[in-house]
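Can you give me the bound-state structure? Components:
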Amino acid sequence: MRTVYVGCVGLVAAALVGVACAQEKKSATVTITVPESGYKETIVTVDGVELKGTGATREFTAPNLEAGKEYTFKVEARIEPNNYTKITRPREITLKAGDAAKLDLTTEDKKLDKIVVRWVPTPVDIVDEMAKLAKIGKNDVVFDPGCGDAVMLIRPVKELGAKKGIGIDIDPKMVAAAKDKAKAEGVAEKIVITEGDILNEKDMAGAAEATVVLVYIGDDLGARMSPVLQKLLKPGARVVSHRFKLGDWKPDRTVTVKGADGDDYVLHLWTVKEKEKK
Ligand SMILES: C[S@@+](CC[C@H](N)C(=O)[O-])C[C@H]1O[C@@H](n2cnc3c(N)ncnc32)[C@H](O)[C@@H]1O
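Here's the bound-state model for the whole set.
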């Protein structure tokens, strides 16, 4: 909590200001609206302390605020829309004694919010189905933003003779695992893995070289990455996403394939057209 003195209202005698203010202590309340994920309850903290409650709203009371002062609190929502995505949404709210404020934590702020998607590998047979949908051949350069252990690069290079695989991952442990795996599979010389963030256009440079993108990254991150991807990709490039769409970019085809494990897998295909370049 940060406090800023803003003066007492309605007092005439300057000499009495300090005394009068000190006596006027009141609470302030905030009704905080949060996203309901259906997977896990959203956790809300104020200055690091978790608020009690469940559902779409939480109530915060700041007790004993001195009249004439402003108090700034750090509020944070930790949202888990599914078992692989964690969104941290930090905000600040400034209160005065007697306030009954509202704070909406349901809307995204692209600059402030942090999204972390953990590694969940795509099964090998589904990678092969994605490669088939993208019609990967020996002239293709395949890019995977959020490559994990690089299965989506190793399979096309090893099994289909793709020219090159380029992967980035934000997690240095996954970068090391991907490099080790490419070496173990004997395709290290054709696969370039670097540590990078798919939300950083510079780190996404591999997209400009790619003729095919294979991706599995979740709705929230995918939507944020989509404009960068569309900007960098060449016309004619094919994008196949395992399960998730890429924001409001409408896929040209969506298919459901049966996995070796008996589960259904949804795959989306886009082919970059001249007019779609941003
Ligand atoms: C669901 S896994 C998919 C891995 C691989 N593409 C596959 O399908 O097997 C998502 C991967 O993206 C990485 N990742 C998450 N956020 C990222 C970001 N902002 N930039 C780059 N990689 C990220 C994670 O570390 C994880 O390895």
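A couple of observations. The radius of gyration is 25 Å. The mean pLDDT is 92.
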